[in-house]
From TrEMBL:
Residues 21-157 form the RDD domain. This is RDD family protein. The keyword Membrane applies. It is a multi-pass membrane protein. The chain crosses the membrane at residues 35-57, 69-90. Keywords: Membrane, Transmembrane, Transmembrane helix. The lineage of its organism: Bacteria, Bacillati, Cyanobacteriota, Cyanophyceae, Nostocales. It holds the Pfam family RDD. It is found in: Membrane.
């Protein structure tokens, strides 16, 4: 087992980012949460299905004859499987590699090159999940694979990483204006749109800006602020807010902290 296994990616801005691979413990907790949600959904579905079947028992009998029970079970099984796979495909595609369980545990699925997963990768992972869970094959692979991958990850070319990034190395100061803007951003902005590599670029800039010339710092700050603003779907910012203040506020909002120094 590889404790604190790490992977490195290089972003288009030439910033090298290092992430910790999510181990079997975090992944198991996320899966338990997801299965509780799925089980609740299944219970509701089967109750509704049983009620509808009872109301339409005559129609079912006329349509399928003696095979009515077999057809009802088959339809319920197919719908259940679609719900099972669709749950993971839907959330991992919509939430950029996270399900509700993964979001709570703070892990995320990304491609091997660090890019967000798409529909194809999420579908492959979901379809192979039953094979991974058969005799705990996936768990054994996660434990012994160098990058802690299960069958679904190997087929889809994905890896599961921790989304939390250590902040103890940061030495820059956060302005009071950024703290005020941070409080305003939380209720109006979905920070889940920011991927770990997006945050890492902000982090690197804020940490290194003191060593830049004023011209280079201004140009890069404006460019990064525009990119982050587009990701967060923020159309406008207050006229008094500079790009540096905006990036500081996003840094705070991403971590949900408000200390004097990060």
């Amino acid at each position: 087992m590889h404790l604190f296994n790490r992977v490195k990616y290089r972003t288009p801005e030439s910033v090298e980012i290092e992430f910790t691979v999510a181990g079997i413990g975090n992944r198991a907790w996320a899966l338990i949460i997801d299965y509780v949600i799925l089980a609740t959904t299944w219970v509701v579905f089967f109750l509704v299905w049983a009620f509808i079947s009872a109301q339409l028992v005559d129609w079912w009998t006329e349509t399928f004859g003696s095979a009515t029970a077999v057809w009802l079970v088959a339809i319920a099984f197919i719908v259940s499987f679609v719900m099972y796979t669709g749950y993971f495909v839907f959330f991992e595609t919509l939430w950029q590699g996270q399900t509700p369980g993964k979001r709570l545990v703070k892990i995320r699925v990304v491609r091997d090159d660090g890019r967000p997963v798409g529909l194809q990768q999420a579908t492959l992972r979901a379809l192979l999940r039953p094979f991974d869970e058969f005799l705990f094959i996936g768990a054994f692979l996660i434990i012994f694979h160098s990058k802690e991958k299960r069958l679904g990850d190997l087929a889809a070319g994905t890896i599961v990483i921790q989304t939390t990034t250590p902040t103890t190395l940061a030495t820059f100061t956060i302005s009071e204006q950024a703290k005020s803007l941070y409080a305003e951003l939380l209720p109006i902005t979905d920070l889940s749109r920011l991927l770990p590599d997006d945050f890492a670029v902000i982090y690197e800039y804020l940490q290194r800006r003191g060593a830049m010339s004023n011209k280079a710092r201004s140009a890069l700050s404006i460019k990064l602020a525009e990119q982050v603003q587009a990701i967060l779907h923020l159309e406008t910012l207050p006229a008094t807010v500079t790009s540096d203040v905006f990036l500081e506020a996003v840094y705070l909002a991403y971590h949900g902290v408000g200390s004097d120094e990060s």
